[in-house]
Design a protein that fits this description.
Strand order of the largest sheet: 15-14-13-9-8-18-17-16
Strand content: 15-25%
Radius of gyration: 21 Å
Structural class: alpha/beta
Helix content: 25-40%
Number of strands: 18
Length: about 425
């Protein structure tokens, strides 16, 4: 379960007063890293998918906006595009009631589940658009909820000379603990499910860092499974591997497949060796060997023809097998309030070393303990993500856009972390020197 011993999960703020205050006391943090200015801070409107599932509505559409300077009589709207007999029309289906420069608003409009069979390996927009409506009734600053299957390759000229530790990479926490539909009401699933789309969907939507936990079940047909702690077995590791391979075969993106924690069935080093042998067999055409080292540039990775880096949280295994890399450093806060989460993330971002080579992942979740779970004081993981994710997006699009490395989140589509990372990498190209 998502308790503090496993270092997991949670929370998103109901309002943005905390954000405004914290930004005001931390404005100088970006100036120490890059030649930035207030103009380079990200200003964007976007669409999020709520992680909340209820009897009345399943994962509604939310509108968020960040540092938007609305002119008098302008407002933010949600528009729906319909293709009637080959003639597309756009109709406004929701008007945002707030006029502040940053915020998030629930629309009550349910999102539509899109199966992988309908996802392409090229950018796609959903039928819903968010836009600023002018006093004349024109739509401007239009954006949509989009997939980003090739965002790295499209920015090869920006990312190519850099190390992975110098790039802002969006990631998912406990990536294989997903449920694409209602995951039921039992307490284990309520505190085990961390994503609402499968691995292929996460990659197509833009995640490039996968946080994988593996269990060993020798008495089952598939002996390798993905886990969230010892109590929750999710999907077979083969399912995850096949989806990663499908993504790599259809794109030129670079993926980090990071194995952290082996919560069940790993009693000795022999079991680890068997898992590595299985991974090497399954991924033989894709693995970049660890002799390149974490100082490798993205151009070096692309030139190698191997675009999968497998991190492994066992030093002996890494020393024995060239296929396994030292895992990404997880930076857990183990905190239970949004204020403490900010303090934790602020500390790791401001104390980051420019000379660091090994990538690090800011784990942008709160961590409930056993009492929190039993008492339901903080709600389930969906509730927690719903409270925290908008704040995480805003923090990383402003005060930490120049310092972030990997940021791993729960229910990634309820953040705008992919678009935030893309824009941050572009801003670094303009405002930073390495």
């Amino acid at each position: 379960m998502g308790v503090s011993n496993d270092k997991e999960t949670m929370a998103r703020c109901a309002g943005f007063s905390i954000l405004v205050f914290l930004l005001s006391i931390n404005e100088i943090s970006t100036a120490r890293v890059c030649n930035s200015s207030i103009e380079s801070q990200q200003s964007r409107i976007g669409i999020l998918i709520s992680p909340i599932i209820s009897d009345s509505i399943s994962q509604e559409i939310e509108i968020h906006w960040n540092n938007v300077n609305l002119q008098p009589s302008e407002k933010i709207v949600l528009a729906e595009e319909n293709n009637n007999l080959g003639s597309p029309t756009i109709s406004i289906v929701y008007n945002v009631t707030s006029n502040g420069p940053s915020g998030i608003e629930q629309t009550g409009i349910p999102s539509t589940f899109t199966p992988n069979s309908s996802l392409l390996f090229e950018q796609q927009c959903s039928k819903y658009k968010v836009a600023v409506l002018t006093v004349e009734g024109n739509l401007k600053d239009i954006n949509c909820l989009k997939t980003q299957p090739t965002w790295m390759k499209q920015r090869k000229h920006i990312l190519g000379p850099l190390r992975i530790s110098q790039i802002f990479l969006p990631g998912t926490h406990d990536s294989a603990s997903y449920a694409q539909r209602n995951d039921g009401g039992n307490i284990i699933s309520r505190f085990a499910i961390t994503q609402d789309i499968d691995i292929l969907g996460q990659l197509i939507h833009g995640a490039r860092y996968l946080d994988i936990r593996v269990g060993h079940y020798p008495s089952t047909d598939e002996i390798w499974w993905t886990n969230h702690g010892a109590f929750y077995r999710s999907v077979s590791l083969k399912t995850v591997i096949d989806q990663v391979k499908q993504f790599l075969e259809n794109t030129e993106e670079i993926v980090i497949f990071d194995l952290h924690e082996f919560p069940i069935g790993f009693d000795n080093i022999t079991i680890h060796r068997k898992l590595v042998s299985y991974l090497e067999d399954q991924f033989r055409d894709y693995i970049l060997t660890n002799n390149y080292g974490w100082s490798v540039t993205m151009n070096d990775v692309w030139s190698s023809g191997k675009r999968l880096i497998i991190g492994y949280e066992n030093t002996q295994i890494v020393q024995e097998h060239a296929s396994m890399w030292p895992c990404v450093q997880h930076q857990w806060g183990n905190v239970r309030t949004i204020e403490d989460l900010y303090k934790h993330l602020n500390s790791i971002e401001n104390n980051d070393s420019e000379n660091r080579v090994r990538p690090r992942s800011a784990m942008a979740e709160l961590t409930p303990n056993a009492i929190d779970v039993i008492s339901n004081r903080l709600g389930n993981l969906r509730d927690m993500a719903h409270r925290v994710n908008a704040n995480v997006t805003n923090w990383y699009s402003t005060v930490w856009q120049y310092t972030a490395n990997i940021v791993a989140v729960d229910f990634a589509r309820s953040t705008d972390i992919v678009e935030t990372a893309i824009k941050s990498n572009e801003n670094r190209h303009l405002h930073c020197r390495y």
